[in-house]
Structures
1.
Amino acid sequence: MMRILLTILFFLFACSQEGAEHVGGVAEEDCCEPLKGGVDPAALSDESLFLLDHAFEDQHAESRRLVDLAGKPVVLAMIFTHCEYACPAILQDLHKLEEAMSEAERDATQWVLVSFDVERDVPEVLAAYAEREELDPARWTLLHGDEGAVRELAALLGVRYKPMPAGGFSHSNRISLLNAKGELAAHIDGLNVNVAPLVEARRRMDVQG
């Protein structure tokens, strides 16, 4: 969490400095303008994952940051595409979660997979995986990042992983739900699990606004 706190302090300092440069006049740009998704940066708590500034690439080889997800709830899991056991089960649980939601709820939710495998799961591999698994590109985002980005995100999500000699990964099996401001709202652990707690947590977000 120290990095997030430092990020907030840096951001506030930058805002105050820009304001100082326009004393007696009108600034051309507001440094505190809303982030993507209409989220006011001042409204983000120090628990928001959207404050992480690491760059990722999606399955279309486009540069993305987590803040690009701001404005809608996010269902997120960490996998690697050549996984033969746990990751297919995680994906099956994600599909169960999709099916348990109404069409409106599914469309108002962002579905994100982040790969542990920074060497092999490059954008074109993620794109082929998304096509093979029939992941709707209108809803699903698959992300590749460098080792630092993936490690920090995993730590904040409470996901542990380590590379194995055979080339795979030993890892936690966790599906996380973030609210529209990037705060962790709920998670479920395990494989072939009951997804109802995440469905209920997602619906509470709509009620709470």
2.
Amino acid sequence: MKKIVVILLGAPASGKGTFKSQIIKYLEKKNLKYTAIETSSLLKKKFQKTIATGDLVNDQDVIEVVKEKLATTEKVVVLDGFPRTLVQAESLLSLKSFDFKIIKLEATKEEIIKRVEYRRICPKCGTTYNLSKKDLCPKIIGICDRCTTPLTKRDDDKNISKRLDIYYQNIKDVEDYLLKLQNTTFCNFDSRLLFTSDAIEGLLKVIVPTI
């Protein structure tokens, strides 16, 4: 039986992390074993300087890291941030033992820049906050609720305009290619909508009825 890979596509700060956490809650609710892969976290170990400047890591390096991780995963995989370019998308064709369920999060450039302006992260435990949202704001402004470490802005958030330009230059070709693949299911989700458990469960039941 093929492994199922739920791929989250979307611009930087479009809500992939929040969406992924809701998918994971759904999988855990159903007692399903899964592997969650955040491409940027994998790449930071080797390519921190490139990522911090807002540039993309070389395609072949990204493909190698992702394929290596996919080889050791559970039956269901939640993959965040891949593919970002046409070359990366074309590499999916060689992964015949996987069924790809692709969810593209839609958000305008203006919405994303506003989100990034208020986004903060704990450099110690990785918890993310948003100062403009009551439910995502730390109890003490500037301090992590979990470990009391002072919060900072993400390094790559400082180059958000450049990252968005690169994303929009590539995403049309990526989307057009993915729509042609036989082993993929593709859908869009408006990231302005609330990422409620009911909304995401409903979406997953449609695109991944086998889980």
3.
Amino acid sequence: MEMGNVGRGRMGFLFLVVMIILGIAASIFDLFKSKEIKIDARRSPSVFENRPQRPPKDLNRREMQYVADAIIQRMGSGNLAFNAPKIMHIDEKRTVELLLSAVASIDELKSQLRAEGEKMGASIKISDQMEARLSGQNFSILAITPETQAVSGKENTEWKWEVSAKEAGKQTLHLTLSAFIGINGKPTPRVFRSFDVNIEVQVSPVERITRFVRDNWQWLWVTVLAPLCGWLWKSRKKKGIV
């Protein structure tokens, strides 16, 4: 009877040892499995990262105005100077030059203008990208430099146009300067200064005759030159010259 009790005690002890070993093995297995999952999750992109992001919400009118006001308030200031002729002749080519600087004064910029004409200047808000445009209804205008340029914080930014007048009388050139500001994720131009320059376009008697002949040569040929040539031919023929 005692031997049976001892045998059962040994069996119980062995069963307990086996259960403890199995529990330890299971714990070790779960530990390695959890680490493997963490490593894979660290190396693989998250499902949230692969999910397409919602586009930014469009700003309404009031919000865009608030953003624009805040950007304009933080913008730096600079100076500009440009030249413009007061008197021109028809088809005469003149150069209009504009200089913009974040550090130079208006007088310094005026002294650096090389083109002829009256020199004018003003202060203006500036950004890192600006646009200058020159227009006029009765002018032919060729932009020599790009109208939209990056603005330096140390050096001058220069614009140039070649201008020729097409009509006589009092004409007007319009110069506008715009800065680009980011509104709703888009660079948006905002005009900060505009100038209207009155120019007296003159025409000399020789220029007037030249333009008249150039613009009406067909009419002159039919009504004047052709009959005149015919009359001269007949006159020479009667005199026996031909």
